[in-house]
């Protein structure tokens, strides 16, 4: 069936990024529930490596999904690969709702993770390939906002369900995960395919028509469409003459892109912010909060996440990627040091676990507890303004057309591998090295800032094809790059002048006749 297509990029982004909402739903489907009596009782108070495995199962599945997302997306298209991913989500949700122990729960989260691995890597690719260069950052930020809305909505669904007795408490909460998947599957047929993917597979007429519909309300002769299509085909021709297979990710300076795309995703996880999103309930137990107060205070964090990522939507393309990545990592590092330092200096040991929770063996009270809570919130605010959205934007921009789907999948693998490792590491780390966990993340944040300064050129307001030059051996040093200064603008102006000259010549000849 041929479905009518909607070409407004903001509408397209709203539908496509429901894939991010799936990710958000699955994150807080655990964070809102792991502290409830129903969960603790039914799963026999999981802690240490068992709770780590439950938390990390989503990331494990996401690694698997990301590994085959690239070739899958190149074969059937960005849009259709997102649609197919939803079937894994539905299967995983069924298993979670029906689980009879933590083995089935882990299996269901792995299946959900396969879906998240595909959508988290290919939604940014799809959005990057349809968006105008001036709006590309803000369009991809919608993906991060969708993740955060999913986290917030699911957290409070979980909180509301915590008042239901028995296993229905968490089964009903997990069952609501069907809703965003159905919305996504119903909306995708109305979205256009990526014009760059269409060009890649040789469907040039459809690619030009789609590009014109997105960029110029269907006008194929618009100077922007002409200039951008010329740039796409020129770069695509050159890429097809380069190295094949996995060599193309490392030959002729391509290693710089591979390093940038994968490392920015790894640093997003190594910054330690997901300690808060996954295990904020534990952190606030260290600060002396318990029961409903703890859950509500944790929910405030997710609201702050949304508010401040909404703010970055309006200026990410003006400020650029580099400043946000560099200063964001430094700010997060300071927050981690403060939280770790206060817990280390003022905490008391609780060997049996705070409130019987063996994952939390220290506690602070009074003014130090207020500092821990305040800087935990500040950490999330800085993360929401910087690494959370920008890492996905930057990773989607740095690849060439021939490598983008698989390259972004590689970047997502880096993200999910560290997500998995940290999900597995954090509960036992809290139980063994306690406050020192935050010091480790603080050091890593400063490492992220250093690499961003030395190796990440600015990509804001540059076409995807222009970014190739920034990573070449002839490109400028990363710290000398700025937002804008796009060659595509010059090509558009050149096309406008050419048409003006042709028109003037035509008028002159017509007058002579």
From TrEMBL:
PROSITE patterns in UniProt? MFS, SUGAR_TRANSPORT_1, SUGAR_TRANSPORT_2
Q: Which GO terms describe its molecular function?
A: carbohydrate:proton symporter activity
Q: What is its main location?
A: membrane
Q: How does it sit in the membrane?
A: Multi-pass membrane protein
- Read off the Pfam families from this record: Sugar_tr
Question: Membrane spanning segments where?
Answer: 7-28, 48-70, 82-104, 110-128, 149-166, 172-191, 275-293, 299-317, 324-347, 367-395, 407-427, 433-454
Its recorded name reads Major facilitator superfamily (MFS) profile domain-containing protein
Q: Which organism is it from?
A: Coniosporium apollinis (strain CBS 100218)
